[in-house]
Design a protein that fits this description.
Blueprint (H helix, E strand, L loop, with lengths): L1 H32 L1 H8 L1 H4 L9 H11 L23 H10 L6
């Protein structure tokens, strides 16, 4: 009977010591799992944006030209023929600009 009482007392104190750690672990884990839902609930007015009409294509191209200046080398220069795009990061924009100026990109 004495061993059983010692085992129960040890189990009680081990549980009381471990309980706060396990409680914090469970709460923070739940917070991590439901982070997006909690954020949406607490910031409902901030995260919702009113729908806007898309800008016309010409306006989008003009804005893109302002933010990403294109540099086309003169015809006959460059690697691949009539026009070579110096800024490779703006390849999609270069196609629009090349079409606008009557150039053909490889």
């Amino acid at each position: 009977m004495r061993f059983r009482n010692a085992l129960l007392t040890t189990h009680l104190w081990a549980g009381l010591v471990a309980a706060p750690f396990l409680l914090v672990l469970g709460i923070t884990g739940a917070e991590m799992v439901f982070e997006n839902e909690i954020n949406d609930a607490l910031n409902a007015k901030v995260t919702r944006a009113a729908p806007m009409a898309a800008l016309p294509r010409d306006r989008r191209v003009a804005v893109a030209h302002r933010h990403v200046p294109l540099q086309l080398e003169p015809p006959g220069h460059g690697r691949d023929g009539p026009a070579h795009l110096v800024d490779a990061a703006a390849a999609g924009l270069a196609r629009v600009a090349a079409q606008r100026h009557g150039l053909r990109l490889p």
